[in-house]
Amino acid sequence: MQGIQMDLVSEDRLAKMQPVEKVRFIIDEVKGGKILVLERGLTPEEEASLIEMTMTLIEPDDFAGIEMESYPSQTDNSLLGKLFKKNVVRTRLTVIGPANKLKTLKKDRDMISALVSSK
Q1: 107 and 75 Cβ atoms separated by less than 8 Å
Q2: What is the model's pLDDT at position 92?
Q3: pLDDT at 87 over 70
Q4: 3-state class of 55 per DSSP?
Q5: DSSP-derived 3-state class of residue 82
Q6: CATH 3.30.110: does it fit domain 6-116?
Q7: What does R_g of the chain's alpha carbons equal in angstroms?
Q8: Which whole number is the average pLDDT over 19-25?
Q9: Ranges of each domain in the chain
Q10: Which DSSP string do the residues of 5-46 spell out, in sequence order?
Q11: I want to staple 76 with a disulfide (CB 3.0 to 4.6 A). Which of 14, 81, 83, 87 is the partner?
Q12: Distance between CA atoms of 30 and 99, rounded to whole angstroms?
């Protein structure tokens, strides 16, 4: 059976990893042709590190890079957050895949629409 593998990665699995481990895990999986859906997205620092490391690995015939889309972050406006004046920014679901297989068609606050090709 041919197709594209899509892995849904739980927040718990990523929470056990250090930031460098997360980035390496994502790059290894995407270089292998998989599309990852992260239950809890990456921090801005982790996203920047992922992009930076990916840029160093791009090879036109081997690895075209990544396509990444996330829902916009949300701020925790809970009562406790307001009492302690903590504006905790929560990252949300993120979709990451090989740039030559995943193309974002539309993104808004609550939906990401993507086209997956089996090239």
Answers
A1: no
A2: 77
A3: no
A4: helix
A5: helix
A6: yes
A7: 16
A8: 95
A9: 6-116
A10: -EEEE-HHHHHTS-HHHHHHHHHHHHHTT-EEEESS---HHH
A11: 81
A12: 9
